[in-house]
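name: query_chain
kind: protein
chains: 1
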Amino acid sequence: MNFPYQEKPENTAYLQLLMLCGYALAGLLLCSVLGFIVLYLMYGEVVLLDMAALTVGDSKYLNGLKVFQILSSVGLFLAPPLFLALTERKKIKDFYGFKKPALPLLGLVILIMVVTMPFMEWTALWNQQMHLPDFLKSVEVWMKEKEGEAMRMTFIFLKIDGIGDFLFNLLTIALIPAVAEELMFRGGVQRAFQRMFNNPHVAIWLAAFIFSAIHLQFYGFLPRLLLGVLFGYLYLWTGSLWYAMLAHFVNNAYAVCIAWYLQANHLPLNQTEATLNTPWYGYVISLLAGIYLLFYYKNKANYGKQLG
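structure:
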């Protein structure tokens, strides 16, 4: 007698979020151990005696730190959603949505990212002017210290001495984070929140909030939050992570390319902040054009679904 096959139902959204957190902690621990082993193999026991230099991002350990960063991204962001799909016994491409992307929509995503960059830069400048009340002065000092540490590490990682460094930075700063973080936050976290609340907008904003907060860069919180929301809607309207990953890659690759240009012209890496002088209407145009393109993207995506 043949019995009909019944597919195993998914675990609850709450349990899936708990599993993601557990896998993330385990992955971070394991990959951190592997990272220190790699650093030891690259630099010898001196690296264990000079831990302070690692924490401040000493440039003499730059290549090792980049490898450590790759392993951290894999352990913290890439591996957990992959293991979640395996735990649920689902195919990764179906579980998270890796439908074949349409070339016109890919081009539209790139255009959206380029058009909205001025507005995102304005939100970054506005966020950097944030001040907390006097009774939270100690918190503000801590936030500025964390921001300074993050900026120092960013400038060290963006150091480029040749085409090899440029390509490696595209890999470590643009490509791997785009794939890993989108799989984690849009594919894993946003998907779980959408099941939990049955409201895609709540899911997108909550996932974007966590995405921004986990970077611990408080003076860049707002633009990163808005980027997370943007990536979330790109994913929602198509059901494919490829578009969100591309948008994330374009955003990060832009920073790598600007860093290469500035260093090639012997300019400081913070030169863009010092010389940014877009008139106010440029930001307004950027915002309105971005909104128009997003709705156009949504309509094209819905039309593609109807045809498909």
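note: The two ends are 37 Å apart (CA to CA).
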